[in-house]
Amino acid sequence: MPVPSPSLHDTLDAYEPMLLAWLRQGLDEHDIVALTDEQGLIRYVNERFCDISGYTEAELLGQSHRILKSGQHPASFYTKLWETITEGEIWRGSICNRDKSGGLYWVQTTILPLLGLAGRQLGYLSIRTDVTRLVQAERELALKTRELQLLFDHSPIGLSWREFDASGAPGANHVNQRFCELIGLTREEASDLANVKRVTHPDDWARQAQLNAEIYAGKRDSFTIEKRYLRSDGVTVWAILTVVVVRETDGRVTHHFAMLEDITARHLAEEELRRTESRWRTYIQTASEILYALTPEGRVKFVSQAWTSKLGHPVDEVIDTPFRDYIHPDEITLWDEFFTRTLATGGDGEGIEYRVRHRDGRWIWHATTGSAYSDRDKRRAFFGVGRDISIRRQAQHELRTALARLEEMARIVDRSPSVVVLWRAEGGSWPVEFVSASVRQFGYTSEDLMARRISFRDITHPDDRERVGAEVDAHADAGHREYNQEYRIQCADRTVRWVDDHTIVRLDEQGRVTHHEGLITDITERKAAEHRARVAQERELELARDVQQHLLPSSFPELGRIQVEVLSQPSQQLGGDYYDVLPVDDHHQGFVIADVSGKGAPAALMMASCRAILRLCAPGELSPAAVLRRVNRAIQPDMPPGMYITLFYGILNLDTLALRFCRAGHEAGLLLRAEGGETVLLGDGGMALGMAPDELFEATLDEGRVVLAPGDLLALYTDGINEACNSAGEEFGRDRLADALRRHQKEPLAEILRRFDRYLRQFCTLAPRHDDRALLVVRAR
What are the chain's domains? Predict the structure, then answer.
C-alpha cells in the first residue's frame, strides 16, 4: 500500500531546528531588520539595513539609532517612541532617516520589545520597509492636481473630455471656459452632448459622427476636421476639432478628449481670397499659416513667406522640390495617402498631422488641410494650409501625462497614512461617496463607510459630535470654502485617536455646495505633545505672575512739592515693564522706568534681579550714571543670551527741583514745560543693561541735567505706549503722546492719565495688543 505524504506540520517538526533560519532568511530578503539591546545600542543589522543606510555592519554595531537621525522629527517624537517601547508596547509609524551620504529616506517601522523568560526586556526588534517613493509621491499629488486643473481651465484652446465606465457608458462632458466661448454655450449646457450637436452646423455633423464611429470601432485613435458652430447670438464660428481617445490594453475607450481651435478669421480670409487675386496675394504674404500649392506630381509650385519664418527655408530653395522631402519618414505614407485622396475627392475638410523638417534639422509638428483645384493647364493640383501645432501637441502630451500621474496619485492615496474622504451634500445625512483604504488604521473599511453600514458621525467621539456639526454649520454660514477641524475618532478597538480634518468645499456651476472633500490625518502624538507644552507653560506663567506681583509699588510716598501718578496696563504675556520711586536721601528721590526684552518667567526673574540691585545701589548715590554702572556690572554676567533691560533713571533734588538723569537704551523722557509750551527730550545714547561688559557700557553712558519749574510735567514711559498701533499698522508715536498730555496738563494727574488712556484705546481700536504699557508722570507744584 502507498506510503502517505508527510503533512506540513510533520515536516516543520522534523525541521524545527532549521525553521528559525528559514524565517530569518525570508525576513531578511523582504525587510530592513535591526536588533538593539535594552540600552538602545545596535547589536544586529541585516544586509538590507546596510544597503539603504550606506553604513557597513561594523560601522553600525554598537551605535545607537541616533547615527541615522535626520533632524526631520521633533524631540518629542523620539521621546514618545522610546516611552512606548520601554513600556513593553509595540510602536508603529513612519520615520525619516539620513543615510551615510547625507541623503534622506523614509521607512515604515514596527518596533517590538523582546522579553526574556522572566518578562524582563532584553532588547528591541525593528522591522522597516522603505516608503521613500510613497512619501515623495504624496507631496507631489496636490501640486500635480493643481497643475492639471490650471492647464485645463486656462488653456488658450477649447478643451473637453469625458470618461467611460467599465461597461463603456460615457459620463458627463467636461469643458473649459474657452470651449464654451467658442460654441456659445454655458458649461452646464455644454456638459450635454445633445446641446453640442444642436449648435453644430447640420452639414458637418454627419462627417463627425462617422469619424466618431470609426474611433469607437477601433479603426482609429484620433481625427481632425474643420466644422462650423451656429451660436445663439447668430455668429457662425469655424473651428478645427481634434479628437483623441485613450484606450485600455483590451481596446476599450476610457477617455475621450477634444480640442477646439477657432479658425473663423482664417476661414473668412480664405473666402475673401477666392473673390479677389489681389487680396488673396496679400493674405498669402501676411498669414501666420503656411499656404502652399503643389503640382499633380507633388512638387512645390508656390509657398507663402510663412514657410521661411516657420521652417527657415528660403522660398526660392523650396520651389520645384518634392514636398514629401520635407516630411518625417514615419509620416510619408500618411502624407501620400492624404495627397492622393484630396486630388481624387477634391478635399473632405479632414486634415492630417505630421512632422516637417526645419532648416536647422529639427522636426516641427504641423497640421494641414487641403483641397483640389484646376491649374492653368486644367490639371488637378493641390492647395494646402499648414500650421504649427507644436504647442497643442505638447499640451496633448502634458494632458495625457498629467492624467496618468493623477491616476497613479489616486492609487498612492489609498496607501497614504492620511485618509481621503468625499462626502456628498445630501440633506443632513452627508453620505460617503469615497474613502481611501487608509481608514483601516482606525479599524474600519472603506466598504463599511461607503455602504453606509457605519457613518462618520458614528465613529466621531460622542463628546465631539455636536461641536463638529456646529462648526460645519458655522463654516457653511460664513461661506468658507476651506477650513480645518480637530476632533477625536473612536476606533473599532475602542481606542481614541485625535485627527486633523482639512476640508475643501466643492461647488457646481451655480455655486451650490455639492461635496465636502476631507483629508484626515492622525495627530494623536501632536496633541499629546501640545498638552505637555501647555502644562509647562502654565507652570511658567504662574511663576511669572508671582514674581511680577512683587516688582511694582502699590503706592507712592508723599514728596511735598512733587506729585507722582502712574498708568500701568500689563499684557497677557508676563514679565515686561517695571517702574518705581526710590529714596536716595532726605533731599533726593529717584524715579525709574524699565522694560525687559523677553516675556514669561525668565524675563520676570531678570527684572526682579535688576530691581533688587537698583534698590541696593540707589541709597546715598547722587549720580545716576554711577548707579547704572554698578547695576550693569552686577547683572550683565548672568543675563541670558538675547535678553536685555532698557532703563531710564533720574534723581530729583526735592529742594531745587534739579533732575539728574541717565538713559540705558530706553525711550527718551519727555519734559513738558508749563511756560512757553516747549517739549524737551531727556536722554542721549546709552546701551541697554546686560548687553555689553563694563567698558563698552560705560563709554556710551551720558548723564544729563535739567531743572523743573512749577507746573512742568515729566513723563517716563515704555515702548508699549509710543509703539502702540492702530488697525492700519500706524504707530501712536512720541508726538501724539506729548500732545495728549499737554491738552490736560493743568488737570490732576489721575485725570490726565484717565483721559490719555481713553485716547490711546480709541486710537488702537480693533488692533491686538502684544506689549505691556506703563506711563509714569511727575509734576512740580
Answer: 16-130 (3.30.450.20), 138-262 (3.30.450.20), 266-395 (3.30.450.20), 437-522 (3.30.450.20), 544-780 (3.60.40.10)
